[in-house]
């Protein structure tokens, strides 16, 4: 039995409107191209434009093309800039846990100040057999411990 309607597979991808250009890209190109054209028309009536002046007049359209077609690490230039601005403006998220015990690493010795006293927490010497027994217990999902009881 075949389906009557074709179900789209990639719904996150934007539809192509004109050749390989999406609607958002087409709007950006039209707006920036219009700005460049209006600058060219208004300035060419007043001044005799050199090639350098025309290059500056085309700058909005060139930036529009960059924002439409340049991709950095799989992200469009617009999304890339917005994520970088968000990273610069928003503070880093830090979470506080209400516990008196510090995070203890089993491999590194560190000192802890508590009420003007310094305690040194030493590394524990754990044998390879204890580690193997613990790994077997975890791998069996606790069944090995129930079998011993």
What topology does this entry show?
Blueprint: E1 16-18, E2 21-22, H1 23-46, H2 51-57, H3 59-69, E3 71-72, E4 75-76, H4 77-89, E5 110-114, E6 117-121, H5 128-139, H6 143-148
Antiparallel strand pairs: 1-2, 3-4, 5-6
Helix pairs in contact: 1-3
Task: Please supply descriptive tags for the structure shown above.
149 residues; alpha+beta; two-stranded antiparallel sheet; 6 helices
Summarize this entry quickly:
This protein is of the alpha+beta class and 149 residues long.
End-to-end Cα distance, whole Å, is 56 Å
Largest sheet: 2 strands, antiparallel
Strand content: 5-15%
Radius of gyration: 32 Å
Parts with pLDDT < 50 across at least 5 consecutive residues: none
What's the pLDDT, averaged over the residues? 81
How many structural domains? 2
| Major β-sheet strand ordering | 1-2
The ordered string of helix (H) and strand (E) elements is EEHHHEEHEEHH
What is the count of β-strands? 6
Secondary structure class reads alpha+beta
Helix amount, in percent? 40-55%
Shape assignment:
elongated
Q: DSSP helix count?
A: 6
